[in-house]
């Protein structure tokens, strides 16, 4: 089975850097993903990691350590529009390749 | 290219009624999934499909049926609606070789 844990809420200041952590226990997976979801909207894809290490996409970076069962999403130069929920998810492999498991999400509030 | 479309956007049902939530995608994606999202929670997988004619259960399949007769369409049927099925339902699709999931806008269902 798969169990994914994220902090429920975080608060940060505009212009700052924030790190959202995700820990998981899983029997195996193809990749780990981060999605952003604004209130009342559908999730949108931010980044994914298949291999260990850091993936950078503009102001967003994501890190994965398979040996530690740990990932984080790093948001730099925070803007008010970054206030949203951030969902960590893993995607299965082999016969479970069509199956994704999501954490409950971290609600980030960016304050002026 | 409309991406993933879902109908209806909003629906109110009485306990015991049945209905079908529609989902269609025009990206020729093999993988499609249905999720439900309860307030303050992440996405929970109901059913998923890895291609036409192939479906499988997710974490919370009870009370729901699916079929996949074409690559484009993946309807979700509620057999006998219950108040516990009040939720927001998202359909998503992705390519077999890429990991990014594309989500529809969601259906907000209330069962009274």
List keywords for this structure.
A: 112 residues, 0% helix, B: 112 residues, mainly beta, 7-stranded mixed β-sheet, 4-stranded antiparallel β-sheet
Secondary structure elements and their pairing?
The complex is a heterodimer of chains A (112) and B (112).
Chain A: E1 2-5, E2 9-13, E3 18-26, E4 31-37, E5 44-49, E6 53-57, E7 60-65, E8 70-75, E9 84-91, E10 100-102, E11 106-111
Parallel strand pairs in A: 2-11
Antiparallel strand pairs in A: 1-3, 3-8, 4-5, 4-9, 6-7, 7-8, 9-10, 9-11
Chain B: E1 4-7, E2 10-13, E3 19-25, E4 31-37, E5 43-51, E6 54-57, E7 64-66, E8 76-78, E9 87-94, E10 102-103, E11 107-111
Parallel strand pairs in B: 2-11
Antiparallel strand pairs in B: 1-3, 3-8, 4-5, 4-9, 5-6, 7-8, 9-10, 9-11
Q: Segments of chain B where pLDDT lies below 50 for 5+ residues?
A: none
Main beta sheet of chain B = 7 strands, mixed
End-to-end separation of chain B: 36 Å
* Helix amount of chain A: under 10%
How would you classify the helix and strand content of chain B by structural class?
A: mainly beta
Shape of chain A: globular
Kindly provide the radius of gyration of chain B, computed on alpha-carbon positions and rounded to a whole number of angstroms.
13 Å
Number of DSSP E strands of chain B: 11
- Shape estimate of chain B: globular
Say how many strands of chain A there are.
11
Q: How many alpha or pi helices of chain A?
A: 0
Q: Which structural class is indicated by helix and strand composition of chain A?
A: mainly beta
Sheet-strand content of chain B, in percent, reads over 45%
Q: Could you state the order of secondary-structure elements of chain B as H and E?
A: EEEEEEEEEEE
Percentage of β-strand residues of chain A: over 45%
Oligomer: heterodimer
Could you please describe the fold and organization of this structure?
The complex is a heterodimer of chains A (112) and B (112). Chain A is 0% helix and 58% strand. Chain A is built from no helices and eleven strands. In chain A, a hairpin with a 2-residue loop joins strand 6 (53-57) and strand 7. Chain A is globular and about 45 Å long. In chain A, 37% of the residues are buried. The model of chain A has no long low-confidence stretch (mean pLDDT 92). Chain B is mainly β and 112 residues long. Chain B has strands spanning 4-7, 10-13, 19-25, 31-37, 43-51, 54-57, 64-66, 76-78, 87-94, 102-103, 107-111. In chain B, strands 2, 4, 5, 6, 9, 10 and 11 form a seven-stranded mixed beta sheet that branches. The chains are: A mainly beta (112), B mainly beta (112). The A-B interface holds A 4, 30-31, 33, 35, 41-45, 48, 50, 87, 89, 91, 97-105 and B 31, 33, 35, 40-45, 48-50, 56, 58-59, 90, 96, 99-106.
